[in-house]
Amino acid sequence: MFKRKGQNITTTAPINLTTINEPTSVITEQIKTIRTNINFAATDKNLRTLMVTSAMIGEGKSTVSCNLAVEYAKEGMQVLLVDADLRRPTIHTTFGLKNHKGLSSWLANQMDNVNDAIHPVIGNLFVMTSGPKPPNPAELLGSNKMTEFLTSATRKLDLVIVDAAPILPVTDSQLLANKVDGTVLVVRQGVAQKAAVRDAVNSLKKSQANILGAVLNDVRDGSHHGYYGYSSSYGYYSDEDK
Predict the structure, then answer these.
(1) Which residue among 64, 107, 109, 195 is the one 20 to 30 A from 238 at the CA level?
(2) What Pfam families does the record point to (predicted)?
(3) 3-state SS of the chain: helix, strand, coil percent to 5?
């Protein structure tokens, strides 16, 4: 199961990710810091599966997922990035991949070989596209076959990063939360509402998620913007800030 490093790269399109195009930039360094902080937050658990999500759409969770996957792969790990946002997939576009088959196809028993949906894209990084939009995404993601897929993937690879749907509009991420080793919540400054973030955290806790922390996206400090911050405490969403 799974294609290995050394097979032909399946995309020739330019990949618009800072960690690839600007490896020495400040933003790339911030992604590396986030990677390090996630590792520290997960020291009491062997982190083999990581879910990245957000409270609502438009907060940049997929961008964070992709850049994190690149940085983990650069570290020498065999990484599989899975587009589990079956309702609004974007990762195939980011990497210039076809999306005729993908995670939804595998979970719905519409393909015989899971390798047909997994693409080696750069170095140690593999991408599994979402596949066609199914009529029952929550049912597929909450299925035993999804659990079996993640278990099988971690036998072959070092880390699986799951880009999941936003928490509040749909139940998909809540169903995935207890299938993964850790969850990171992406929060976009100027977009996310504090009440929505609180509700998202509460929903994850109810789903028995192991919340590793939050990434504050698109931070603006007056002179710079587009930066990332990381917190494992959610301190900037205290009740005093209502």
Answers:
(1) 64
(2) ParA
(3) 35, 20, 45
| 10-residue averages of pLDDT along the chain (242 residues) | 45 77 90 92 87 94 95 96 97 94 96 92 95 96 97 95 96 96 91 88 95 84 51 35 32
Position 237 in a domain: no
pTM for this predicted structure: 0.88
Number of structural domains (the chain) is 1
Instruction: Indicate whether 236 belongs to any domain.
Output: no
Residue 82 tokens, joined: 């899975």
Q: Residue 133 falls within a domain, yes or no?
A: yes
Question: Structural domain of residue 187, as residue ranges?
Answer: 46-217
Q: Which residues, 6 or more positions from 233, have their beta carbon under 8 angstroms from its beta carbon? A: 213
